[in-house]
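Below is a filled-in request sheet from our internal design queue. Each sheet records the structural input a requester submitted and the sequence that came back. We keep these sheets so that new team members can see what a complete request looks like end to end.

REQUESTER: design group, bay 2
PRIORITY: normal
MODE: inverse folding
CHAIN LENGTH: 185
BACKBONE (tokenized):
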């Protein structure tokens, strides 16, 4: 991989082509989308956003093992910005589906560290925690997300209780014991 390929920018034209291919996808029949993104990748080898989109197309088609390789290549090629957030979320979810649970949580931890306010990252982080046998942390993550994102009068009324329970649950280890530095407060 040359530096010129690794650093190929996402031009407005390339961005428009990606958006056009994505808009035309049929989730029930992904092969035309996969083919279109592979053709685009042939024109733009090692372009991070294109690698990511190829991975996403395979992921949607249920070909998680193939998708994971493209996500890894996109990350290695220097993917950045909001596309990095989406890639980490999707890659973490794909790893979960492949049964690579510790890797999944590590990738989703990275996404959460970079985008702690992203509801989608937080929800998929909770899924990863749950799959890895850390259900207390998963429920805690979801309670915190509800307290942050659901602003109904009923939720706001119980916000402090939701946050307290979220903090307690996220402070438990996989065996249900308090971790160092956490408390019930």
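RETURNED SEQUENCE:
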């Amino acid at each position: 991989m040359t530096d010129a390929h690794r650093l190929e920018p996402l031009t407005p034209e390339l961005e428009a082509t990606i958006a056009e291919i994505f808009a035309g996808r049929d989730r029930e029949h992904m092969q035309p989308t996969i083919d279109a993104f592979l053709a685009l990748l042939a024109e733009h080898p090692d372009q991070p956003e294109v690698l990511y989109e190829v991975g996403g197309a395979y992921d949607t088609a249920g070909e998680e093992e193939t998708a994971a390789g493209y996500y890894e290549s996109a990350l290695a090629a220097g993917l950045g910005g909001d596309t990095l957030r989406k890639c980490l979320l999707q890659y973490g979810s794909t790893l979960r589906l492949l049964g690579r649970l510790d890797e999944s949580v590590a990738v989703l931890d990275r996404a959460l560290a970079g985008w702690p306010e992203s509801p989608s990252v937080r929800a998929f982080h909770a899924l990863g925690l749950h799959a890895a046998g850390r259900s207390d942390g998963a429920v805690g993550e979801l309670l915190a997300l509800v307290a942050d994102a659901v602003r109904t009068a009923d939720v706001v009324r119980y916000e402090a209780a939701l946050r307290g329970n979220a903090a307690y649950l996220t402070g438990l280890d996989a065996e249900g014991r308090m971790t160092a530095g956490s408390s019930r407060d």
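SHEET NOTES:
- Residues 1-6 have pLDDT under 50 and may be disordered.
- The chain is about 70% helix and 0% strand.
FILED BY: M.R.
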